[in-house]
Amino acid sequence: MSGAVGGARGARPSALARWRRLPWNLVWALALASALLVLGWASGYWILLRAAYLLLALVVLAWIWSRLSLRGLEVEVERQPARLQAGQEVTIEVRVRNSSNFPKLWLEVGDITEVPGGQAKAVLMVAAHGYRVWRARIPCPRRGRYGFGPLLVIGGDPFGLFRSAKSFGGRWEVLVYPAPLPLPYFWVPAAQLPGEGPLGRPSPFLSPSAAGVREYQPGDAVSRIHWLTTARLGRLMAKTFDHHPSSDVWLVLDLEEGVHAGQGEESTEEYMVTAACSMARRLLEADLRVGMLGVGREPLLLPPARGPHQYERMAEALALVRADGRTPLNQVLVGHQRSFGRHSTLVVITPSPHQEWAEVLADLGRRGMQAVAVLLEADTFGGAKGPILPYGALVAGDVLVYCLRRGDDLSLALGLQGARHLPGRGAVPRRDGG
Questions:
Q1: How far apart are CA 289 and CA 304, in angstroms?
Q2: Residues 375, 350: Cα–Cα separation, whole Å
């Protein structure tokens, strides 16, 4: 049996299969030439034979032309940028130089791309020793990693009987980040550490950054003297420091495959990723330490950090993350609770209809952590169940809850207007009565 299978795999394609691969124009030309030859030999009419010979000579000439159509071509391709946000475009520039003495009357240039719906094709004519530049823009509507290339150039004869193809360049990849949305009204409770809050205050203790300078006072350490300002003003000046929030904000993504619903852009997975990216940018701009956690087939774990480099790491991780895990959210929270400090703020984003994870999150809140839940209402995305059970457990545990439905404006849903429960205030009804 194995020998038969191996023989079938190694067998050459049949004659019928090879004929089917030929261009229809060539098939018709050969068929017509054969018919003219048969009729000419049978009837003795020389004009039919000469027409057949002329047609066969045309086929040979077309074959030679197609083989010469790609000779002497120098093709360069440049694509940029290598990283962008969803909705932006990749720019492709192709430079074609013809170093031969024969013009290229028909060249089909196409860049092979994995971007959904992306096509970059053009037909060019290049004169002898000529030069052409072709540019194209490919929109990248969805996050992910997409490949481009190699560039394929196809030439042929004027009659379309034969085609020759040649590839130029190698594979090139672009990483498409999710596009964050502004969240001007998004709010998470602070962990109540010294110096946290919207306003800072001078501190007598050293911290990583200085807030300003003041007159030197007796008892100030020499290390606190700001020598540049002292030299400029001619008197001793000392640095003052601000308290910086030292608590961590963890964005916890539910990557369990079974709880998600919807397709494409209108799915709970894409809403979750967009919300996480938007919240990460908002919190990092507020100079908070932000980390990210999720358990799928590929683990997602970014320790808390500050600054634009942390946002770039998060955006890159979110560009590739997939809701393909098998671990329930409650097990994720329990298994990683040692990673959360006592003064951490947990922001859980999930469409899960199960109550267990909400009870675990409320219990973590009672231990001193601050907890926030962003509930994706899966029933509005075509799912079977909504978040009724976890919502009740979260309200009972006095956890801040945001609810997000399909079609909601993220900037409003993740704000005080979209909060369904504020700690100490109970349920907040929506304008639509929900």
A1: 5
A2: 6
